Amino acid sequence: xxxxxxxxxxxxxxxxxxxxxxxxxxxxxxxxxxxxxxxxxxxxxxxxxxxxxxxxxxxxxxxxxxxxxxxxxxxxxxxxxxxxxxxxxxxxxxxxxxxxxxxxxxxxxxxxxxxxxxxxxxxxxxxxxxxxxxxxxxxxxxxxxxxxxxxxxxxxxxxxxxxxxxxxxxxxxxxxxxxxxxxxxxxxxxxxxxxxxxxxxxxxxxxxxxxxxxxxxxxxxxxxxxxxxxxxxxxxxxxxxxxxxxxxxxxxxxxxxxxxxxxxxxxxxxxxxxxxxxx
Length: 279
Hints:
Elements: H1 8-13, E1 21-24, E2 27-30, E3 33-34, H2 35-38, H3 44-53, H4 59-71, H5 80-90, H6 95-103, H7 113-129, H8 134-148, H9 166-179, H10 186-202, H11 210-220, H12 225-248
Antiparallel strand pairs: 1-2, 2-3
């Protein structure tokens, strides 16, 4: 009966509910599949897809997901997350501590642009579903952005690269997969139209960046925007691990963000005497 008080065991078993994994002694099932049936037959990108989406992807879907994940693994120690991983390693902490320190800074500003880009694309896709043409939907969304939002159009421009070398290749591959019917190509079209319209309005080219390009792929594959950030974290964790491991083999200790002969710019009060001390 529904009103019957449940036993302690029943309450314990129902404390967490999940459709992801079933596990008991001798049994591990992921989304209903025996783990031993998946091992050696399912790639890591396919396993990510299965865990997040509940079903196995096609080989092409898994391949395209792997392409996006592989493209964003690292951007060097100038990237805050990578620098933090290396600095943490010089403090004598373990790999997990260094990785956690780095991953914790992947937020709205550093790591969140892909989610923002896919949300932007999604607004345009929704307008197109409502009957607007591509050019009209893009123009309308950019009008709203420039009228009321701050910052850069998500997914465009890079502070180091005049043209992000990763983005054109990712779009090229996305269109190749679209030509084979793996994805629709809709988000690639949207990103291209945004890039073209912004160039017209600004009078200069502001090319797609890695966040905008991977957002295209994640959108083509049907991932919602919040998962785009999580997928970026998975991707960048590879570089974070590599740098933490490399740095851990070095003899540097307590290495800060700048060489010791380079000090920060002090902008506070000039040197002064403590009140009551003689001049």
